[in-house]
Write a structure and sequence with these properties.
globular; 268 residues; 10 helices; 9 strands
């Protein structure tokens, strides 16, 4: 996974950071079945590794990703319905794996993020984009639909915006993406993008790794659900469990005794 010729690179950094990098700049980081498999493997690896606390998803070159590779689309057009179904399920597996990753994921977007790349952004927890980044749900231009990415994109931008951009295939810019909820922070350029990312990484390093994992799971547990007795009881159970857990005890002790918690790097 770490060889330079690989379509997806993994870089292990200090303090529990892992970078997953789309590495097809000559193809505008378009993805095909090989890229999808390599991304799934990379995300599954970082999810299992207890030493990795935070993940950054980024791309080499001028563009985050132009979406589907033309050669891959050509092959899919010639395949049977069953082969297309199997292929689509792998893309769906990629989106689900990224969306439900137990570690925080920061996505860095520069240049174009088209088609399925919008889905990748929607599945990240925090998304930063350069001012010049552009987004497009371009599938209908090809007579297709953004099917497997739709659950994540609709949750990110809302049904109302989806009803426009799924149908129109208009390009929208980083500021519009921020207004819609797809992007959290817009940066002037790539240097500012990396600088802001580093600030966020420092912020996340102050937080309990298990608590961040539990907080992410909590969001999935309560999102789009009525505030029922079952949901209320589940949230009470969750906070009780984490208060008596090892990390919760350490965090409370550090706060009460005015010292740094054990997970905070010495440099901070």
């Amino acid at each position: 996974m770490s060889q330079q010729h690989s379509a997806v690179l993994m870089h292990q950094r200090d303090n529990g950071l892992s970078e997953i990098v789309l590495n097809r700049p000559d193809k505008r980081n378009a993805f095909d079945d090989v890229v999808i498999q390599q991304l799934i493997q990379a995300f599954e690896y970082v999810d299992r590794d207890p030493e990795i606390q935070v993940v950054v998803l980024r791309s080499e070159g001028k563009h985050f990703s132009a979406g589907a590779d033309l050669g891959w689309m050509r092959r899919m057009a010639e395949n049977t319905r069953q082969e297309n179904l199997d292929d689509s399920r792998e893309l769906a597996r990629l989106m689900s794996t990224l969306n439900h990753l137990s570690k925080p994921v920061i996505g860095l977007v520069q240049g174009a993020a088209f088609g399925g790349a919008v889905g990748l952004a929607a599945c990240c927890d925090i998304v930063l984009a350069t001012q010049s980044a552009s987004f497009c749900l371009s599938e209908v231009k090809l007579g297709l639909i953004p099917a497997v990415i739709s659950p994540y994109v609709v949750r990110a931008i809302g049904e109302r915006q989806a009803r426009r951009y799924f149908l129109s295939a208009e390009v929208f810019n980083a500021n519009e993406a921020q207004q819609f909820g797809l992007v959290h922070i817009v940066c002037d350029d790539e240097q500012a993008l990396q600088s802001r990312c580093n600030e966020l990484l420092q912020q996340l390093a102050n937080n309990g790794p298990e608590a961040m994992k539990a907080a992410k799971d909590l969001i999935f547990a309560v999102s789009h659900k009525p505030i029922s007795i079952e949901v209320i009881d589940d949230t009470a159970q969750r906070i009780a469990d984490i208060r008596v857990g090892t990390e919760g005890q350490e965090g409370l002790s550090a706060f009460l005794n005015k010292r740094k918690a054990s997970w905070i790097p010495e440099t901070q």
